[in-house]
Amino acid sequence: MRDSRRPAPRNSRNPPGPHYMSDASSPATTTAPDMLELAALLCSRVCHDLISPVGAIVNGLEVLDDDPKPEDREFALDLIRKSAKTASARLQFCRLAFGAAGSSGAQIDLGDAQTMARGHIEDGKCTITWNLPRLLLPKNRVKLLLNMLVVAQHTIPRGGTLTIDPIGEGEAMSFRITAAGHNARLPQNIAELLSGERGPAADAHAIQPYYTRLLAQACGLTVTLAPEGAAIIVTAS
Question: Which residues are registered as beta bridge partners of 162?
Fold first, then answer.
């Protein structure tokens, strides 16, 4: 609970967290976005992830501008520190998951991917169990892994554990992610977006699983999302 002595940050209405539109508000489409639309939707997705911590930094600076009491000043500085750390982690993750991440044919260290994933996803509610060896993999496979983690995180909205296991070995390695948490569930339409049974809705939320499918296709793989007992399994094979 926020200390009542601390000023409420101005303009603090943050956007809602990631969600997926229902059939009633987002009818199925069969036309894939062209290159310009895909780029625009991915940029919108990145901006959505960054606007909350960046907005919190602005709020903290506004509090400091008001020449606050010492305790309120410390609160504002703490808000700025935490939000800057969050924004930096999200930027680094998005650069690897959605960006070019080196030249065509480049390889990425799975150790670096692990660091980015933990910085972006582990937030006190969600933890990662990383069972992958440290080696270099083609960049599209690493990008696929990070995007699979985002998909898996959405299946445990109340938090839990994401366990990542390898399938195969070497440069042909693929991945299995087990999402276990309270009330783990299949987000509406995401399995269809991953499999290609449903076209992407024209919004920045649906574009991420659609982009995950494109990455899997580039690697010669298929991503599936299915329940297994109380857990949800995301597999690329």
Answer: 128, 179
- C-alpha distances in Å from residue 16, one per residue of 8, 56, 57, 76: 19, 14, 18, 22
Query: Closest by alpha carbon to 64, among 139, 10, 130, 127?
Result: 10
How many Cα atoms within 13 Å fall on the side-chain side of residue 105? 0
H or E element in which residue 129 lies: strand 126-130
Predicted TM-score (pTM) above 0.85:
no
Tokens of 102: 């080196």
In degrees to the nearest 10, what's the CA dihedral of 94, 99, 105, 106? -50
- Ranges of H-type helices in the chain: 35-65, 70-98, 110-121, 139-153, 190-195, 207-218
Q: Which domains does the chain have, with CATH numbers?
A: 35-99 (1.10.287.130), 105-236 (3.30.565.10)
What is the Cα–Cα distance from 190 to 209, expressed in whole angstroms?
Answer: 7
CA nearest to 129, candidates 160, 168, 97, 93: 160
User: pLDDT tens, 184-222?
Assistant: 998 878 888 887 776 655 566 778 888 899 999 999 999
Q: What single DSSP character describes residue 45?
A: H
3-state secondary structure of 235: strand
CA–CA dist 86, 62 (Å, integer): 19
Q: Is the separation of the CB atoms in 175 and 164 below 8 Å?
A: yes
Cα–Cα distance measured from residue 216 to residue 151, given in angstroms and rounded to the nearest whole number: 13
Q: How many whole angstroms separate alpha carbon 1 and alpha carbon 182? A: 23
